[in-house]
């Protein structure tokens, strides 16, 4: 994959500015600062317990940092509840699958459209035509997502009957159904075999290319990270220790010592 030239970066879509988060006496994030750029795939890596999921939880409104700001398209979103952050155009998948197991794939994806639905229960009753048109529009978008993720054959199946890999794909679909401008993926390939990982990496690239969606992902597979990411942020013990292109991060001595190990370092010429 050809990574975007770091000398031609656009204005940031999100600015993570000196974010600090503590739980009692435990510091989960310590003055973390970096930018997320529109239309790019950006990875967050680091050892277990480095603060990666805590940072995603701060962005999506599940945690409220005690210090710093997180600005999305110029607006500080710290303190906003998760549903308001979702309405601004930020969607999220979770490390542990958070689907409704006794509902079909289509119904789970339709739930991802709820933030866009203007026809409530009363307007749906009094203005049935408008509500019906809105439903058709949302279903059309969901069908696009189903086609993109190649899950046509399981669209009517109960999610709980699907394999783990397919459930992860459906969860990606539900987040994508929100049509976000920024998509947060927390270990989307965890627990997958190599074939499933390759499929997921391809879908992430397709989403980025076809929808222009900015994607931030936490991932432990360094092969995937280096292949598909435009920028990489590295956390250790809640601190940002490196940020840059995959090549820059991979050759950074601090990253090699803290996380990658010598086998993942860029070969010397």
Automatic annotation (TrEMBL):
Alphabetized UniProt keyword annotations: ATP-binding, Nucleotide-binding, Transport
Superkingdom as given in the UniProt entry: Bacteria
InterPro entries per UniProt: AAA+_ATPase (IPR003593), ABC_AA/LPS_Transport (IPR051120), ABC_transporter-like_ATP-bd (IPR003439), BCA_ABC_TP_C (IPR032823), P-loop_NTPase (IPR027417)
Pfam families reported in the protein's UniProt record: ABC_tran, BCA_ABC_TP_C
This protein's record includes keyword Transit peptide: no
Domain ABC transporter: 14-262
GO cellular component annotations of the record: plasma membrane
Database matches in SMART domains: AAA
CDD domains: ABC_Mj1267_LivG_branched
Sample GO molecular function, one term: ATP hydrolysis activity
Keyword Nucleotide-binding included in the entry's annotation: yes
Protein name: ABC transporter related
Species the sequence originates in: Chloroflexus aurantiacus (strain ATCC 29366 / DSM 635 / J-10-fl)
């Amino acid at each position: 994959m050809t990574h975007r030239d770091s000398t031609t970066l656009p204005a940031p879509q999100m600015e993570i500015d000196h974010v600090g988060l503590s739980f009692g006496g435990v510091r989960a994030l310590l003055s973390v600062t970096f930018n997320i750029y529109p239309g790019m795939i950006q990875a967050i890596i680091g050892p277990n317990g480095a603060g990666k999921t805590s940072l995603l939880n701060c962005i999506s409104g599940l945690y409220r940092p005690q210090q710093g700001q997180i600005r999305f398209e110029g607006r500080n979103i710290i303190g906003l509840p998760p549903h308001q952050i979702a309405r601004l155009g930020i969607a999220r998948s979770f490390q542990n699958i958070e689907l409704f197991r006794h509902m079909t794939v289509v119904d789970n994806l339709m739930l991802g459209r709820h933030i866009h639905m203007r026809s409530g229960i009363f307007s749906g009753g009094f203005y049935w035509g408008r509500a019906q048109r809105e439903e058709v529009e949302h279903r059309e978008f969901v069908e696009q997502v189903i086609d993109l993720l190649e899950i046509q054959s399981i669209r009517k199946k109960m999610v709980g009957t699907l394999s783990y890999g397919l459930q992860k794909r459906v969860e990606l679909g539900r987040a994508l159904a929100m049509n976000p401008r920024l998509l947060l993926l927390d270990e989307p390939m965890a627990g997958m075999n190599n074939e499933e990982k390759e499929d997921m990496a391809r879908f992430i690239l397709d989403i980025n290319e076809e929808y222009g969606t900015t994607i931030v992902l936490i991932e432990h597979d360094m092969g995937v990270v280096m292949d598909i990411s435009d920028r990489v942020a590295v956390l250790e013990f809640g601190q940002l220790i490196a940020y840059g292109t995959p090549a820059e991060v991979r050759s950074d001595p601090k990253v090699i010592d803290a996380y990658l190990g010598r086998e993942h370092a860029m070969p010397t010429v």
